[in-house]
């Protein structure tokens, strides 16, 4: 069963949907015709700005300042959505639609919430017979193919059904594409692409991948797109020799290439970073961790030595056992600061970088329908460190329940005080007893869990006396917990993902300065994430000003111990407060709750009430991120996170 391609762009996918009653997979085919209108280069640059900001309104809602739009909601429960299948949603669109359209796929639509369980999959390979009996070939084997520009997907997995990761590398017919993107100006956030040979066909156009996971064996990121991969994990399942990339730039005039920034290369087998599919192939890895699976030579010329003179392959400040430049082929480059600069940000794909012939400022022709496939799935954030009976940090992450762990607390800092971390009952920092947590932290991060250091707390001694004081605290945090260096790092050599502001006293001054100084360190390499835990009365008395900076990625609002805005017997107070909180300049807002009745004085919501009443009322918000729980000890007693995680 295959669609044909019309002369206009066409999007098709094969979708596997879990039937809860019969535990069977129902396969569907989705086809959508595309219409085209002209857009200017200025409008495209606005798209780049939107992508760079990572505002959830881009990925979760149809609201847009430039184009008219509307949202279609898909949920297997007819009472909660407009349609029960993506097919029905697309069928509802008129053939000549001039509106931007968002398809919003609710959590639990197939097998649960999150990219791990919401999966688009199909089983074609390059050898699968097509409509006329001839093999499909690599291009037409894609599980999901997009030819339209302005396509965005968030928290969805695209998978080759039952792909054989152990198949011999390069064997004819084993090529099977999980996703092909041929449209311009596309973005992917929190998505997974699963296959073996030729997993992700980045065919053509400008594309942005953020926090994605890409798995394969041979040439599993290939094509001739101009694409930036930021904070992604590239995971090899090669049984013997494989390659991450096969970039197809065929001319020195092509402004294409792949750039990987702050990524991870992990997995099995022996891996080349890239093979020169095109004679002018261009690939750069920067600030990227590489497992000890990289072949020392690093790069392969596709059996054509003449390509050694024309390809552009580079590394910049990479780390890990596989990142050593010693042994790399002589025709690859260890980039200087100036050489690397054009590859490190969105300027690489918006045309302002100096990495080759720039993208012309001509008027672009683009599709006037934007389809966003996005899953309203959140994560659970947990506080750990305030009870010695709550289990180890490694055990906490091994539960699979949490997306974030906040280490509580750095309770003393600022105003000339010697900073002191207090992980009650777990370790004694005064005798370097907490450095052993380093391996636990790395283990958690390897699972994709962000580990934050929470500063403050309800019983701490902290105070920022001035802007200079804020700068000094930021410097201390950078050198001792983040990407800097110090001879006395309390948690060893592990690099935390960011800083959590749990400010409940001291002063309301200079927290915005601290946020700015910490955020500035992101320019040095690995991003420094910022989170905060304000009280639900709006605005927060202590860090309300800091939250207006727009620098915070995650805000877990404490909807407990605050009767005026927490849940009681009805939703009115909580919903009103929630609407205020989602108006702030932050990327994601979390509903903060006690994990058990004893964890707080008030505000506990039974799991069944949370999943049936509260979450359905707030998950449609543009900035919904999930649920924060206080804390791990009480969660162990109640099993709260396990009870709610499939609905978060």
Automatic annotation (TrEMBL):
- InterPro entries membership: Cts1-like, GH, Glyco_hydro18_cat, Glyco_hydro_18_chit_AS, Glycosyl_Hydrlase18_Chitinase, Pectin_lyas_fold, Pectin_lyase_fold/virulence, Pectinesterase_Asp_AS
| Keyword Disulfide bond included in the entry's annotation | yes
Keyword set includes Transferase: no
User: Which cellular compartments is it found in?
Assistant: Secreted
Which stretch is the leader sequence?
1-20
Q: Which Pfam families match?
A: Glyco_hydro_18 (PF00704), Pectinesterase (PF01095)
Write out the GO cellular component annotations.
Answer: extracellular region
| Active site per UniProt | 219
Its UniProt pathway annotation is:
Glycan metabolism; pectin degradation; 2-dehydro-3-deoxy-D-gluconate from pectin: step 1/5
Protein keywords: Aspartyl esterase, Carbohydrate metabolism, Chitin degradation, Disulfide bond, Glycosidase, Hydrolase, Polysaccharide degradation, Secreted, Signal
Q: What is its main location?
A: secreted
Q: Can you tell which superkingdom this protein's organism belongs to? A: Eukaryota
Reaction equation(s) it catalyzes: Random endo-hydrolysis of N-acetyl-beta-D-glucosaminide (1->4)-beta-linkages in chitin and chitodextrins; [(1->4)-alpha-D-galacturonosyl methyl ester](n) + n H2O = [(1->4)-alpha-D-galacturonosyl](n) + n methanol + n H(+)
Give GO MF terms, alphabetically. Answer: endochitinase activity; pectinesterase activity
Protein name from the UniProt record:
Pectinesterase
Q: Organism classification, top ranks?
A: Eukaryota, Viridiplantae, Streptophyta, Embryophyta, Tracheophyta
């Amino acid at each position: 069963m295959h669609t044909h391609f019309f002369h206009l762009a066409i999007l098709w996918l094969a979708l596997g949907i879990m039937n809860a009653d019969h535990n069977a997979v129902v396969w569907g085919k989705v086809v959508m015709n595309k219409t085209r209108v002209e857009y200017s280069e200025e409008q495209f640059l606005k798209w780049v700005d939107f992508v760079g900001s990572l505002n959830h309104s881009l990925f979760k809602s149809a609201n847009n300042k430039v184009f008219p739009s509307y949202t279609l909601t898909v949920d297997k429960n007819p009472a909660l959505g407009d349609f029960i299948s993506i097919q029905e949603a697309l069928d509802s669109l008129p053939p000549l639609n001039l509106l931007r359209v968002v398809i919003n796929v609710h959590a639990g639509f197939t097998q649960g919430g999150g990219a791990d369980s919401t999966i688009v999959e199909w089983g074609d390979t390059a050898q699968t017979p097509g409509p006329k009996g001839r093999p499909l070939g690599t291009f037409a084997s894609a599980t999901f193919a997009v030819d339209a520009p302005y396509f965005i997907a968030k928290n969805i997995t695209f998978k080759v059904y039952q792909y054989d990761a152990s198949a011999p590398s390069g064997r004819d017919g084993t090529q099977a594409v999980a996703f092909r993107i041929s449209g311009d100006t596309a973005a992917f956030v929190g998505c997974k692409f699963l296959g073996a040979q030729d997993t992700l066909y980045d065919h053509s156009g400008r594309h942005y991948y953020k926090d994605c996971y890409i798995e394969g064996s041979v040439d599993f990121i290939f094509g001739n797109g101009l694409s930036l991969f930021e904070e992604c994990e590239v995971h090899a399942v090669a049984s013997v020799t494989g390659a991450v990339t096969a970039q197809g730039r065929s001319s020195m005039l092509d402004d294409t290439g792949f750039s990987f920034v702050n990524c991870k290369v992990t997995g099995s087998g022996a891996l080349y970073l890239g093979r020169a599919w095109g004679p002018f192939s261009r690939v750069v890895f920067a600030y990227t961790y590489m497992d000890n699976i990289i072949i020392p030579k690093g790069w392969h010329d596709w059996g054509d030595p003449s390509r050694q003179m024309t390809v552009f392959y580079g590394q910049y400040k990479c780390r890990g056992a596989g990142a050593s430049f010693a042994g790399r082929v002589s025709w690859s480059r260890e980039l200087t600061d100036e050489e690397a600069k054009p590859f490190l940000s969105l300027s690489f794909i918006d045309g302002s970088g100096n990495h080759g012939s720039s993208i012309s400022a001509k008027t672009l022709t683009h599709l006037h329908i934007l389809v966003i496939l996005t899953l309203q799935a959140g994560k659970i954030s947990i506080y750990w460190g305030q009870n010695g009976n709550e289990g180890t940090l490694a055990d906490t992450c091994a539960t699979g329940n949490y997306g974030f762990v906040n280490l509580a607390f750095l309770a003393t800092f600022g105003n000339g005080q010697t900073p002191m971390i207090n992980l009650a009952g777990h370790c004694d920092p005064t005798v370097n007893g907490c450095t052993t947590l380093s391996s636990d932290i790395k283990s958690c991060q390897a699972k994709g869990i962000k580990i934050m250091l929470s500063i403050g707390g309800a019983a701490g001694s902290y105070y920022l006396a001035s802007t200079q004081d804020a700068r000094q605290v930021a410097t201390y945090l950078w050198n001792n917990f983040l990407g800097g260096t110090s001879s006395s790092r309390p948690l060893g050599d592990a690099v935390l993902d960011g800083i959590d502001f749990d400010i409940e006293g001291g002063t309301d001054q200079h927290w915005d300065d601290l946020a700015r100084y910490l955020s500035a360190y992101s320019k040095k390499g690995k991003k420094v994430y910022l989170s905060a835990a304000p009280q639900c009365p709006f605005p927060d008395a202590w860090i309300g000003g800091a939250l207006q900076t727009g620098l915070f990625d995650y805000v877990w609002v404490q909807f407990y111990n605050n009767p005026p805005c927490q849940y009681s017997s009805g939703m009115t107070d909580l919903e009103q407060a929630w609407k205020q909180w989602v108006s702030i300049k932050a990327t994601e807002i979390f509903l903060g709750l006690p994990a058990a009745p004893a964890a707080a004085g008030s505000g506990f919501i039974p799991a069944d009430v949370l999943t049936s009443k509260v979450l359905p009322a707030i998950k449609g918000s543009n900035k919904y991120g999930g649920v924060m729980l206080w804390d791990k000890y009480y969660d162990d007693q109640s099993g709260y996170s396990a009870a709610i995680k499939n609905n978060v």
